[in-house]
Description:
Elements: H1 2-35, H2 43-57, H3 59-64, H4 73-77, H5 80-114, H6 128-154, H7 164-167
Helix pairs in contact: 1-2, 1-6, 2-6, 5-6
Amino acid sequence: MRRLLEGIYSGAAALAALCMVLLLLAVLLSIASRQLHFQTPGIDAYAGYLMAGAGFLALAHTLKRGEHIRVTLVLNLLRGRWKKGAELWALSAATLLALLFAVYSCKLAWQSHVFNDISTGNDATPLWLPQIAMALGTVVLAIAFVDELVLELLGRREPPQSSEALRNE
């Protein structure tokens, strides 16, 4: 099961990386089109969709690697059951919020598909297409938070230690 979950997180991260590469290509195409005097309709909108996709798809991978911003000032002062209780409370609240975010993101993409909602730009992209990345990213984030909560409840969670703090002055 652990291998499957890690595969899901890594797969979402790979999709996020793909979005970043496509974003780079979209920006380069936009620059080239301005310099060479040809038009690429909707390229700015597609760059925005790719940027959003990259951000949402990377959320779970970032969480599991301990790279999300956490305020640990209070947690570091707590010991024993108080610390575990605070961790459980925080993970429970985050899991609930992630689940709600996932449900409403999926609902938004579905409704955009049902109502045939399109972008207002000249590209007229069906909005459910870029919204799929947001929905997928939030679902994987919710899975990651449930995973973290279950590991904490079982006493097997090892909070990831980011090396970023070591590089700060």
